[in-house]
Amino acid sequence: MLIAQISDCHIAGPGKNAYKIAHTAENLAHCIDHINQSNPTVDLVLVTGDITCSSQIEEVERAARLLDRLRCPFYVVPGNHDTRSVLWRVFGGRACPEMSAGFCNYVIEGREIRLIALDSTVPGEPGGEICSIRAEWLDKRLAEKPAQPTVVFMHHPPVKFGVLETDEDGFAGAGILGNVIEKYQNILRILCGHIHLSSHGGWKGTIITTAPSMGLQLGLDLTLTRPSEFYLEKPGYLLHYFTPDRNLITYTVTVGKMDGPYLFDEQ
Ligand SMILES: [Fe+2]
Ligand SMILES: [Fe+2]
């Protein structure tokens, strides 16, 4: 099974760039073309939030027109730059198949890996939250199939990842989420976005993995002293490969021209 993860598209309105200078829509189109050309084919795509710049309907519709070019099913969760009701209006029934207690929480069944979408957003706030309603919902869903390999996907990582811009946003309810996660041994990964960098960290017996963005990289400064800043980079996405021996391996794919390939034998 092959899963692609796109994150932090930050699509602006038609004809506009994100933060005036980031060509996120063009970058998303390049990533979609790349995913469509994958051999073996990608089974499904997860879009882990911040689909738009400011959740305007024209931004969501522009993102949907691009994502609809994917040749496989895709699923979305909101980020702090999105509004769950607007996403539901545009994507509801297909890429956001269900709303649970007003949250964009749902389960994708019928695959080798069970995928659980968790809505970590707080309307109007940059930070994330898992409240008791969402934690209880997750616990019930996980308890249904505690032996099937499972991936949880959400926008905000529940721990600090050493990036000032997003660490400062905070995450409420990490304790109650952690109490649920550590009860289950079948959670292969928690897939997140929000920090605009490809990274991995262990947490509560599983691994949190974060995806790169559509070319809008946050500054990596582990001294946490530099001002909030971003860099324009080549866009990228994650490819999660569930191998025949049931191991989930993650590759960071950078999309753009590169020199090569060269044959070792000819050098
Ligand atoms: Fe973002
Ligand atoms: Fe975000």
TrEMBL record:
Keywords of this entry: Hydrolase, Metal-binding
Highest taxon of the lineage: Bacteria
InterPro entries for the chain: Calcineurin-like_PHP, CNP_phosphodiesterase-III, GpdQ/CpdA-like
Record CDD domains: MPP_GpdQ
Keyword Metal-binding listed: yes
UniProt keyword Metal-binding present: yes
Example of a GO MF term: metal ion binding
Protein known as: 3',5'-cyclic adenosine monophosphate phosphodiesterase CpdA
